[in-house]
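thread: overnight batch results

M.L. [08:02]
morning all. the overnight job finished for the chain we discussed friday. pasting input first so we're all looking at the same thing
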Amino acid sequence: MSNSNDITQQSLHELVIDGDITALQKHNQHDLQQYRDKNGSSLLHYAAGCGDIDICKYLLQLNINANLQSTNNQRTPLHWAARNGHLEICKLIVIEHKVPVDTLAKGDVTPLELAIWQCHLSTAIYLVEQLEANPHHPNSWGCTTAHWLGKSPIQDVELVRNTCDLLFVQCKVEYNSPNNHGQTPLHKAAYAGNLTVVQYLVEQFDVVDDIRDNHGNTAADCAERSQNNELAKWIRRHASVEVHQAIDVLGLQREKHSISPPSPQRIREAFLQLAKVHHPDVSSYNSMKQWNIILDAYQLLQSYWDTDIDLFDCQIRILSRNAKLMEHKRICWYDNWHNEYEQQLQSLGENDNINTDLSEFQSRLVRLLSSDSLIESGLCLAQLPKEYEKNYQQRVPNPKDYGYRKLIQLLQKECPCITVTVNADTKQAYLRVASTNKTV
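M.L. [08:03]
and the structure it wrote out:
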């Protein structure tokens, strides 16, 4: 008896797939209403997914729940109709049977997200413009329709670009926003090997591959991880943060919607203009660091035009990896400097020299805090070491060398020209010039 029932159940959804409504109508209506496959899908799920509107209308007349969720992924017939681009069935379910257009499946996935994923453009347009589906909705992973489009498997370039226009131009969906895992639509498109979306984002919005996900991966890294090596090279060549920074250092600008840096002639002209000001032969030693930055930027952009693509890719890869490593090693210089500074103090051995050092430190700190950007807001104590070194190419004194455990104690006791106030809510300390008498 059980085997016979299995055969009957099997034949029901096969009749729907075959579109045989005549044979379907010969079956007991109760069996049609109660049918569920192993994933909890009803016959209406099958009919909606197959795009058979006549069978959908017949099943709906039997009062089969139009918003029934399957047990495996909680998708409804509307999800399957949208996923497969069956617009008339979407209209039937939403308009006539009042199913919410943004009804949620497992992971808070909407029908529109599935339609965008498969680039069913006419269905997506109708869902958005006529049924007011929300293209900005983030699912449980923080992914919007932009992320779904990024991982689309559709190869039709024109169709994908038109879908990009719908989302990013017409609907104004955020094109570079990370999801809960730190992945932007560029990350998703890179991992999926979706060159069309990658090129669209870079060409139309000048998106830069400067965001790392929660595992430290750039979009180029994601492309490489999924063995889309040529796409990874394309991203490094046309969207790397290193190239964009080099363009900014030389004071250049890309032409609108151009994926390439300015011409070698313009690069050379910009470099020569900066050399007149920053070259060591015509400027002070203090500008050597800036000159090296300019020289590195010039050489990188020249390499873009002059070297083999694979060689240039290696340069960008090395620069990117080094930048990531430096983030982890940023604090290491403190220990070495402390040791050197302690040796200097031992060799001096006189309080006068120590007081002179602190006097100079206080003087420089006053000048730093007197800048327009800091005089009102103050400087967070945690940012002091970084800002001080950036402005004076020297590190802040080690409090232990002066008998204090913490930098805040050294400032409060030895720097009367500086006030230290603590924000009652955040518990963060801020520095200001004493004469301003500002409080947090």
